[in-house]
Amino acid sequence: MVIRGWIIPPPKAPIKTVTEFEAERRAKARLLEAQGLLKSERIKSALLKVPREEFIPSQYRDYAYEEVPLPIPGALATISCPHSYPLFYEPLELARGHRFLEIGTGSGYGAAVAREVVGNQGLVVSIEIDPVTHEFAKRNLERMGYADVLLILGDGALGYPGMAPYDRVALTAACRDFPAPLIEQLKPDGRAIAPLVEGDRQILTLLTKAPDGVRREKLCAVLYVALRGGGSP
Ligand code: SAH
Asked: How confident is the model at residue 139 (pLDDT cuts 50, 70, 90)?
């Protein structure tokens, strides 16, 4: 199976134990640090704490710490590769106390990691457009004890004005540009990150809302599913 150029490993019955997953999780964090992708202690503790395998359908569970996106329930939905989360959260400088908005809940894993980073003084709101995927994320987050993550079913390109303004916004699906409502819902000096489509490539782009306008900084080439829905630019 291939998702947007990624080769997905074959489904199989899971056999790995909790101890094996823990060891894989620690090894993955060490590798991400060695690669220079993981720098902040807080993001590292979050990655060590959240069991990624619990956010993956059982037939792909054993691949939890491999660098591939894996299929999850819903049309075109995936849990992103493990390195995606430090890749997004480090340049965002996601930190304790932040109000964080995620577009594309997927499995709910990214929202759980973000909740560990922002802590109970912060807030995580996550929007998913696919009802089947939204239900999957909801079940995962509730089962893992993340009852205070606010999950919204809808078009994330419109943001969620009810909890705005946000310190940080992450889009985990690719679009042509940052949707205007998301920039409006950012606090002054707030940051947003998204894979932006440029020709046949996607460039992970960091946006900073400065007093004199928005600044965009291109970070690296990436490959994510496309943002859907009428509100997408
Ligand atoms: N962050 C996720 C990975 C998300 S993959 C995780 O941690 O698992 C991208 C997701 O974006 C998919 O689930 C897809 O259904 C969703 N999506 C696509 N367009 C959207 C939109 N306009 N609003 C909200 N979600 C959207």
From this structure: very high
Exposed / middle / buried, residue 71 (Cβ in 10 Å: 0-12, 13-18, 19+):
middle
Largest CA distance in the chain: 55
What ranges in 1-154 are assigned the alpha helix state H? 18-34, 41-49, 84-92, 109-118, 131-143
Residues 61-108 pLDDT 10s? 999 999 999 999 998 889 999 999 999 999 999 999 999 999 999 999
Centre of ligand 1 from the C-alpha of residue 212, in Å: 31
Round to whole Å and give the CA distance between 6 and 77: 13
Read off the pLDDT of residues 4-25 as tens digits, 9 standing for 90 and up: 667 889 999 999 999 999 999 9
Q: Is 128 in the pocket of ligand 1 (CB under 6 A)?
A: yes
Cα 102 to middle of ligand 1, angstroms: 9
CA distance readout (Å), 136 to 22, 79, 107 = 23, 11, 7
Tell which residue, 200, 192, 153, has the closest CA to residue 171: 192
pTM for this model (two decimals): 0.96
Tokens representing residue 86 in the block: 């430090």
Averaged over 182-190, what is the pLDDT?
97
Is 107 among the residues known to form the active site? no
Residue 120's CB is within 10 A of a number of other CB atoms, namely 9
Amino acid at 57: P
Q: Is 126 in the pocket of ligand 1 (CB under 6 A)?
A: no
Q: CB of 181 closer than 6 A to ligand 1?
A: no
- State the Cα–Cα distance between residues 226 and 222, nearest whole angstrom: 12
